[in-house]
Amino acid sequence: MRPSPRKAKSFDIGRGSTRRQTCWVYVIQLPDAVAERRNRRREIVYVGMTCRSVEHRFEQHKNGEKSARIIKKACRLGLGNRLRLRPDLMELAGNPQGSQHDALEQERALAKLLERRGYTVFSN
């Protein structure tokens, strides 16, 4: 007997778990040395999401654990101590999010909003 063909995995958000889970969208300001600014009046930022505390996730980023490429680059350049959380920009996300799905959608929406406002944005 032939095995049934498997469907290709999708990288869409999907509905995911129906379990309610508090998640957060966060914003980290990056030093200028990691990339060129699109607008000299606006900073370079990374937008992410976590279902743990924002502070715990930020410490993971600074230690290079499960970090995005742009944050790893900042750490390689010895600039990990110049990463900054931006609570003022995180407020725009309407935290906390009720589920991981909601947080992923809000992460994308916040990244687009910040780009429209002139920030140089990195996100997964």
In words, what does this structure look like?
Strands 3-1-2-4 form a four-stranded mixed β-sheet, with helices on both faces. It has one domain (24-123). It is 31% helix and 16% strand. It is an alpha+beta fold and 124 residues long. Mean pLDDT is 86; it is low at 6-13.
Quick rundown:
The chain is of the alpha+beta class and 124 residues long. Helices cover 31% and strands 16% of the residues. It has helices at residues 54-62, 69-76, 87-90, 100-116, and strands spanning 24-30, 44-50, 84-85, 120-123.
Supply database-style keywords.
31% helix, 4 strands, 16% strand, alpha+beta, 124 residues
What's the number of domains?
1
Structural class: alpha+beta
- In percent, how helical is the residue content? 25-40%
Mean pLDDT: 86
Shape: globular
SS elements, strand count: 4
Strand content: 15-25%
Backbone CA Rg: 16 Å
Strand line-up across the major sheet: 3-1-2-4
Number of helices: 4
Kindly report how far apart the N and C termini lie: 41 Å
SSE string, helices as H and strands as E: EEHHEHHE
Low-confidence stretches: 6-13
The biggest beta sheet is recorded as: 4 strands, mixed
Fold blueprint:
Layout: E1 24-30, E2 44-50, H1 54-62, H2 69-76, E3 84-85, H3 87-90, H4 100-116, E4 120-123
Parallel strand pairs: 2-4
Antiparallel strand pairs: 1-2, 1-3
